[in-house]
DNA sequence: ATCCCAACTGAAAACGTTTACAGTAGTCGA
DNA sequence: TCGACTACTGTAAACGTTTTCAGTTGGGAT
């Protein structure tokens, strides 16, 4: 691979001139240099440049699982914005494991300028680990510790959960089932609590046996729904905390022959592919994954720009709106 | 950020000893060095290392669109394997555009050791562009030019298409509709031709007006199905060339109230999330996206290992099997 | 003709590593 | 006690850039 010395020699100038012309400065022999570059197929070495400049023009993106469509869309959003500024993204999946996450970051951190992360755990050790990186960090969807100290992007879980509860109440439901994600994550906790709180404000109590809490996974959704089917609670409406659990739940409900919305109204957080094609197109609280990616990337790029500057911008906390997409999986409860 | 000199000074040794101990060699003052590293929070600078070694420990992964679940799964597969060897992956989406692809690679190539790509175009200019990179390349799913000269991983499109046709024939269908992807891609072309050929061998001709060819997109699928609905051809079975087009087609069919499989048997290439939950769970030819990723990564890692060695292993061409997953979207044609 | 200044140029240092090379201890056998 | 060998150590060069600094050139004003 040709290097800058080869180009300089061929063009009959010093390497400084080549570097300068590449940087866009005025140089007398620009034409000769351009030709030499072309002839040799020269491209500047990224490592050398990174070493000299202390910049890498890349952003690490850590998500629990890149093959999850929601995270894939998020990554796409980050990528779109990063590209416009000439940044590349290095993607890795943590599998919801703190250990994997911290090992990944240990390896990646020296090759990137900033980190966008959906943290696996919200505990304080994650906060410390991220703080130790000494680089701009933006948290997406979840937070870490009390006082995270990082920029933050997430959707408005509270008003989504409230909208869901209000909608079901307005249809006349009195008896509910709930499948919620891990309570040690913000989306899991907020969606769960606000939903319950909204019902409570309407004077409705949800019995413990109608509440299932576990992993944000399709598998847990399937098991939870199965348990609800096996031990009937008389619920007429089921609220599920995210799309993957919802898919699992639908699998169980379908297998058990539960008719939706005839026997059970079904509503979940997060839209998903084809929700509109199911036997009963599913009503959802949808969120803008790509826009979340955009917001996260914008924040990071701003911080990167700022590096070294004396005044630091205050931390930002962007909350994106969600919306209730009404399809056909909810109706008034059967009068019995 | 502390560097190796700081560590050496604190430990009272030369930088060479630090470097050696990091490389796992025996060093007398290992303990002191370890402590110094810990105290200073030292981590080797990746750029310097990359510069010195000419290695980057990263692989560029270029897919048409990372937010497409199939590609997301593929990326996941590549990532899983790469990680085990300490390689990171740099992901970028080409949007099916050659220009975007070549620009991306131009920027990325100096920061990576190898490239895994689902090329946007199969033409010769893509082949030349990739060859000019002078790094290991593995093509996934599609090829470039005649004689690509790169490792290749894809699924067995031909036997999948044949299985699909045979299955529909065995159900008694005589009149078909086809929605196929771009014919300038291997999956588009092979699936289309083999399906037609299998029908032809059974003495069945598909009229031109029952054949729609276009982008591998949900939108094209929707439009194509709409056209087939608007201009009835008497087809009793519809074969769709991939999952995104299939989803679009299902949207149109559903909106038009076409009952599946009552009025129309439906079969497509590539499984998708929830295919089993639709009104008529969809029968598909499914393929192993994650395994494709594994195969691609393995090939690349092998080549990277080989760099500089005099003898080159011959190019590999891995073909992964597909399977017919029979659900409920196909039945015998209505007798009329 | 002289001087000054703007506009450019090149040499060299620096970024943080790895590694070839040339030592220098320390151990062991004689 | 000596020498030979082993096992480690440090110095310095190299990787390919960018950038500072100290020129050099040429043109315009005097």
Your description of this structure?
2 copies of one chain form a homodimer. Chain A is of the alpha/beta class. The first copy, chain A, has 12 helices and 12 strands. Chain A has 3 domains: about 5-45, no CATH class; about 60-155 and about 290-320, Rossmann fold; about 155-285, Rossmann fold (3-Layer(aba) Sandwich), CATH 3.40.50.2300. In chain A, strand 6, helix 9 (about 185-200) and strand 7 (about 210-215) form a beta-alpha-beta unit. In chain A, helix 1 packs across helix 2 (about 15-20), helix 5 runs parallel beside helix 12 (about 290-305) and helix 10 (about 220-230) packs across helix 11. Chains A and B meet through helix 4, helix 5, strand 2, helix 6 and helix 11 of A and helix 4, helix 5, strand 2, helix 6 and helix 11 of B. Strand 2 (about 90-95) of chain A pairs antiparallel with strand 2 of chain B. Chain B binds a DNA duplex (30 and 30 nucleotides) through helix 2 and helix 4.
Helix and strand layout, with pairings?
2 copies of one chain form a homodimer.
Chain A lengths: L3 H8 L3 H8 L7 H11 L5 H8 L4 E6 L5 H16 L3 E6 L4 H11 L5 E4 L6 H10 L3 E4 L10 E5 L1 H14 L5 E6 L4 H16 L9 E4 L3 H13 L6 E4 L2 H13 L9 E5 L13 E4 L2 H18 L10 E4 L2 E3 L11
Parallel strand pairs in A: 1-2, 1-3, 3-4, 4-5, 5-11, 6-7, 6-8, 8-9, 9-10
Antiparallel strand pairs in A: 10-12
Chain B binds a DNA duplex (30 and 30 nucleotides) through α2 and α4.
């Amino acid at each position: 691979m040709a290097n800058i010395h080869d180009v300089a020699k061929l063009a009959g100038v010093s390497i400084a001139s080549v570097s300068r012309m590449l940087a866009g400065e005025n140089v007398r022999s620009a034409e000769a240099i351009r030709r030499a570059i072309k002839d040799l197929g020269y491209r500047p070495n990224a490592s050398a440049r990174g070493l000299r400049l202390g910049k890498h023009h890349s952003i690490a993106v850590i998500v629990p699982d890149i093959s999850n469509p929601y995270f894939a869309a998020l990554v796409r959003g980050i990528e779109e914005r990063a590209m416009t500024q000439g940044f590349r993204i290095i993607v890795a999946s943590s599998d919801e494991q703190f250990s994997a996450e911290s090992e990944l970051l240990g390896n990646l951190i020296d090759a990137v300028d900033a980190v966008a992360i959906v943290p696996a755990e919200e505990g304080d050790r994650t906060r410390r680990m991220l703080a130790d990186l000494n680089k701009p960090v933006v948290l997406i969807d979840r937070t870490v510790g009390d006082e995270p100290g990082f920029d933050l992007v997430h959707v408005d879980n509270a008003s989504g959960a409230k909208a869901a509860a209000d909608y079901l109440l307005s249809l006349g439901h009195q008896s509910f089932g709930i499948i919620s994600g891990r309570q040690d994550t913000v989306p899991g906790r907020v969606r769960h609590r606000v939903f319950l709180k909204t019902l409570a404000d309407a004077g409705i109590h949800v019995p413990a046996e109608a509440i299932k809490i576990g992993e944000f996974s399709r598998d847990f959704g399937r098991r939870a729904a199965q348990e609800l089917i096996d031990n009937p609670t008389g619920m007429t409406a089921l609220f599920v905390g995210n799309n993957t659990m919802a898919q699992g739940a639908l699998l169980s409900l379908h297998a058990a022959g539960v008719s939706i919305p005839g026997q059970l109204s079904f509503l979940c957080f997060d839209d998903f592919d084809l929700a509109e094609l199911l036997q009963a197109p599913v009503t959802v609280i949808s969120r803008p994954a790509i826009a979340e990616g955009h917001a996260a990337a914008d924040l990071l790029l701003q911080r990167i720009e700022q590096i070294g500057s004396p005044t630091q911008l205050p931390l930002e906390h962007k909350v994106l709106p969600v919306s209730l997409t009404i399809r056909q999986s909810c109706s008034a409860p059967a009068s019995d």
